[in-house]
Amino acid sequence: MAIQELVEEVERSYGETQERMSDPAVYNDHREAAQVGRRLKELEAANKLAQEWREVRDDLDAARGDGDLRELVPELEERMAAVEEELRLALVETDPADAKDVLLEIRQGVGGDEAALWAGDVYRMLARYAERKGYKTEVLSSSPSEGGGFKDVTFAVKGDGAYSIFKWEGGTHRVQRVPQTESQGRIHTSTATVAVMPEAEEVEVEIDPNDLKIDVYRSTGPGGQSVNTTDSAVRITHVPTGLVVSMQDEKSQLQNKAKAMRVLRARLYEEERRKQREEQEATRRSQIGSGERAEKIRTYNFAEALTAEDRRQALEE
Fold first, then answer.
1. Would the pTM count as exceeding 0.90?
2. What distance in Å separates the CA atoms of residue 205 and residue 187, rounded to the nearest whole number?
3. pLDDT tens per residue, range 246-301
4. Nearest of 101, 94, 76 to residue 39 by alpha carbon
5. b/e per residue 144-159 (b: at least 16 CB within 10 A)
6. Which residue of 22, 30, 88, 212 is 20 to 30 Å from 244, comparing CA positions?
């Protein structure tokens, strides 16, 4: 498509999307309004580039027709070429979920207590990376291990484009190092799995309350002991899919339920996305895998045993 036609197509699409956003029928349909709003946001950058292209083109035409301005022609031609390239790149199809907040679920894999410590290290590493990128983090649930790590931890990363950054972290992370408890200096291999899900809005995932089985119970600590005198912990089962989400970190049953629903919506949303991808691809690799040592996306090697303080400092560097 010629650049002139491309600019006209962008302007037409942006104008039509603005009109749809102003349509009362769309405005009153929360799901459609959310979809149109996201589409409008996707087109904003391309529309700005289309307007810039027109301005540069007009300046270039003026410079070519004016002897006093002709010396600006090479610079304007270079700028026009750059804008055209930016415009084409802006129209490359992206994942619709890229701009969303993201939920990450980290679980210990194989390796016993050392795997739980490693899961904790992976959590702190990803959380600090998010903070350095300017994102906000929020722990939704966690199951600490007796050794100071995590059996599992779920946290949210909030900020524009968070999913586009963290979606590449999904999979099995493997570490090879000497555990603190290893007296003979032998290197052990442990794994942790990371599941990455875009956070879904309520209007994107409709959940029938009749499809939910909700149980309440008392929160427990690392050793299984009760840490609460009320039934504040919540377990939600989505009967049609069998998905189960448990939350116990908050003292309020309502807060735990709200967090559990956030995770459930994200899992259902990701499941629907997975089905769509399977329709488009003949084969698809599982995101988090089994956590076995042989299955990995990244391997980290430490030459010496690390104390808790060593790990903290290493992850901060």
1. no
2. 45
3. 998 888 899 999 999 999 999 998 888 888 767 655 433 445 455 555 555 778 77
4. 94
5. ebebebbbbbbbbbeb
6. 30
